[in-house]
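Re: beginner question about structure tokens

> Can someone show what the tokenized structure looks like for a real chain? I only ever see the sequence side.

Sure, here's an example I had lying around. Input first:
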Amino acid sequence: MELSKACCAAIIVCAGSGRRMEGMDKLTAPLAGIPVAVRSIRAFNSLEEIGEIIVVCRADQTAAYQRMVEDYGLDKVSGIVTGGETRQASVFQGVRAITDSWKLVAIHDGARPLVSREVILRCMEDAMAHGAAAAAVPVKDTLKRISPEGMIAGTVDRSTLCAAQTPQIFDLLLYCSAMDAALERGVDFTDDCQLAEMTNTRVFLSPGSYRNLKITTREDLKLAELLLEEAEDPEAEPPGSEPEPPEPQEAAPEPEPAPCPALSGVRIGHGYDAHRLDPKRKLILGGVEIPYEKGLLGHSDADVLLHAVMDALLGAAALGDIGGLFPDSDPAYEGADSALLLERVGALLREKGWHTVNVDAVVIAQAPKLKPYLPRMRERIAGALSIDISQVSVKATTEEGMGFTGTKKGMAAHAVCLLQGK
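And the corresponding structure tokens:
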């Protein structure tokens, strides 16, 4: 069934406690430089079929979510409400905050940041056709029933089983009717489909994606980082089981750079670095390994781009340069990953009260062609500095056969940055 524009409201549930994250708030934790919850909200904010978004969070995080909504330009968020003691109570709070009579309501876990446009739209179409639909994937593992003694009591036939995901999308009037029935009966469920099942509503299972994982542990966060890296790699083959192959160069427009805090000090920095090429080395630029017959020679990984960025940042804050901070006379930095060094520079700047407004860099190299790798370079820099990718620009150019870069003897990079401080 064809969808109309602005036919659906979305409830993004971010009120969980995250007990299995060992003290880390999984929803505000950075995932490749962008908070997990922001990635989840942004997936719905970018769809013209979504007319309104309600974010449900803990009472002590309302101000933090308001800042994220403003900083990342999530303009469809019409309300940030406090959740209840259970997931069902939190969802009910979100539904009550909807301000218009939309045809559908989509309920999504804020801890599922990799949900794709295709999964959401398929689920929305199926909900429009059937009244209720939930994203789901076939169960891949063999399932066992357990005896009270902890022994195997039997094997479950998995051919009729699936794992439910979110979004779960319902006709709004149908959901409100089920919500009223649950309150009247005093029942509480961990899954919105159970609510529909209670009222004998049949829920259609819409094809989900194994990429649409839920961040529950620190290991899940690391896996999500790897999936994002894969999605940004133009050379990677998409897994056969996935319905949405990534297209880094055709990505949706990024939000405008987040407004910076009202800080008084402003500093501009410039950095430059150059290294000769060596056939015995790997080529690392912007924290990305690039297939090429030669690499850059240096004490660390010789990443000219990140070295220029670090020098620009350190120079702007009058904190010296990378030679002073990470001297090549120190064996600890031999072969060092410059992306990790950039993280340390970013931490040092924050410690000194500096906020990175933006970074603009250019790599000068005759070969290879760097355009396919620029999005991933931007992602690595943004992640290392804990800023949004929209605050990072990376370009590449040649010198048309002139000089040491033009004759393929080496590569160079320039970078400029703007810092604001207290």
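Each token stands for a local structural state, so reading them left to right follows the chain. The two ends are 54 Å apart (CA to CA).
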